[in-house]
Amino acid sequence: MKRVLTLMLMAGIISTAVAQKRVVVSLEDSGADEIVHYWDNSTAPHSNEITEDEQMNKRFDMTQTSSTDFYIYKADPAKATGQAVVIVPGGGYYKLSMKYDGFMIGQYLRSIGVTAMVVKYRLPNGHREVPLEDAQAGLRYMRTEGVKWGVDPKQVGILGSSAGGYLAGHASNVTPDDEKPAFSILIYSVVDGTKRSIQRGTFGLMLGTNRTDAEQHSYSLHNLVSPSTPPTLLLLADDDIRVKPEHSMAYYKALKYYGIPAAVHSFPSGGHGWAGHDEYRYAEPCKRAIKDWLEIMRAPKTE
């Protein structure tokens, strides 16, 4: 009996040792009003098969994410517009840039009366369906639970930058029509998977090492646009060499082919990675462009 108990205790120690560590940013550090743990690899429809502990540095960049959390920023009821935005941070699909691509944008949206949610999503690790189902889960959650915070389910949009922009655009196009976001905001978004640098980065990590040219083509956002793609605001810097302006312009051209409302703001400089940075030279024009777009999106539609 003693030997059995010893073996059971040893098994418990081993089980504890291999359990994945989940990383969560505090309410104080994220500026969020609420944090919701949604699911992980053991409970979500698909797993990204990451088994290592989640990691986070001092900048709140996360890697090896295998669980999904929602950071909620609730608009003040006194000035709430009824709109909500689901934010999916960038990071090239090898990390999540939670602070600037997520928390700072969430705080700004809350300040202008828009409820926001930053999705800590599971990185693809070659499992293309995983980030998408996390983004779609965020949209569903905001529509159903957001009503308690004054959110109009028909006014839930999505925002992402860089690889997060790709994810936001992907969700905007392949989600069933009755569940699509009402609008999209894509900031220096990855679009064209046939570009060499993107093949090695975002698309390589999403589609895996056995990806084909045909897959890279078919997953490129401008090839997914249809008449049901939501209205889209595109923000970029003209001197971005990491994700060149041609990405956003290819998407804009596809949107206009189908007559979908869209706007492009190309700032003269800034390169890549300036979203959420208040010290960015064009931070205020960027914020105004987002605020104006949101006002247009909630204006009554005329025939």
Topology:
Elements: H1 2-18, H2 27-30, E1 34-40, E2 55-56, E3 61-63, E4 67-73, E5 84-88, E6 96-97, H3 98-111, E7 115-120, H4 129-145, E8 156-161, H5 163-174, E9 184-187, H6 196-200, H7 202-207, H8 213-218, E10 232-237, H9 245-257, E11 262-267, H10 283-298
Parallel strand pairs: 5-7, 5-8, 8-9, 9-10, 10-11
Antiparallel strand pairs: 1-4, 2-3, 3-6, 4-7
Helix pairs in contact: 4-5
Tell me about the biggest sheet? Answer: 8 strands, mixed
Low-confidence stretches: 1-18
The CATH architecture comes to 3-Layer(aba) Sandwich
Treating each run of at least 4 consecutive H or I residues as one helix, how many helices?
Answer: 10
Structural class of the secondary structure composition? alpha/beta
- Principal-axis shape equals globular
What is the β-strand count? 11
Instruction: Tell me the radius of gyration.
Output: 20 Å
Number of individual domains: 1
Terminus-to-terminus distance: 79 Å
Oligomer: single chain
